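Q: What changes when adenosine-5'-diphosphate is included in the input?
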Amino acid sequence: MKEIDVMAIGELLIDFSPAGPSLNKRPTFEQNPGGAPANVVAALGKWGRATSMIARVGEDFFGEDLISTLKEHHVDCSLITKDKKIPTTLAFVNLDDNGNRSFRFYRKPGADLMLHKDNIEETGIKRCKIFHFGSVSLTGEPSREATWHAVELAKENAKIISFDPNVRELLWEDHDEMKEQIIRGLSVADLVKVSEEELHFLTGEDMLEKAMTLLSETYSIPLLIITLGAEGSSYRLYGKMGFIPGYKVRALDTTGAGDVFWGSVLYQLLGRAKLLELQETDIVQILQTANAVGALTTLKKGAIPSIPTIDEIDLFLRQHRTHMEDKT
Ligand code: ADP
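A: The predicted holo structure follows.
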């Protein structure tokens, strides 16, 4: 049976990105494929890794578009089911002048939330190396139960668990419940990615380093990565901490930058004989590349359409290395 490098569970939805005014001077939106866990596997699939997605879409043309996009990125879609009654979830993205985004979800409910425990099967999970999830599929039932069921199966089968909480406060009615669910995720994960805002929100601590120590020690997280937007990223690996600066680019749309960044971290971990046996020098290198991948993802609109190719990443890194050498 074929091995899967990364299996992800969670939201697969349409991101409508602002596309400027129409001829009638009305706002228009571009239909882009999205959903954080889907973005992660799409990136890994594009870069040649074996991936699979567990998700639910509506039986409509948005759902069709999402599945065909993932297939184009070589993601196994055999565990994506279609809901006959509930439409594919939609998210409208608002961008400010710096390319930073906020979301509005059309999901009362949306098909992603209808993912059911019966849609999860152990055989697929047994075949993966890394199991990835987030908190959007934990916002309500039945997808919450389905997600935990899958995560528990992955744990029982000694898979590496990757978690990106991806806090979307608008999707939760009860903030205590949101924290509770995210804490459960942090407690089971081996690899955790959070943004700086999420880190402060989850710890209530303003100082970056203190907050990182608090989070990773409280929940025994072996590898914690903090994304810092244009600034770059920070890590905490078995008690050691560091900051890796980002690259200067003209960001157009940061949607998906964190997911594709995380795809790059997982891609590089998969390239190692023992995924979790890392030295500090390894994580520094991994984040230098992942920062470049994140930066490249901000240059185009949407998440999946902006995933750079391996050649584009190599070229960008070569150009920046030369640039840095010229300066010294
Ligand atoms: P998240 O979705 O986790 O908030 P970020 O927006 O911080 O993700 O982006 C993830 C990574 O992508 C950052 O850590 C950084 O390496 C890169 N990145 C994001 N925005 C920019 C930017 N404006 N310029 C350069 N790099 C960026």
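Observations recorded in class: The pocket of adenosine-5'-diphosphate is lined by residues 195, 227-230, 232-233, 246-247, 249, 251, 254, 257-258, 261, 291, 294-295, 298 (CB under 6 Å).
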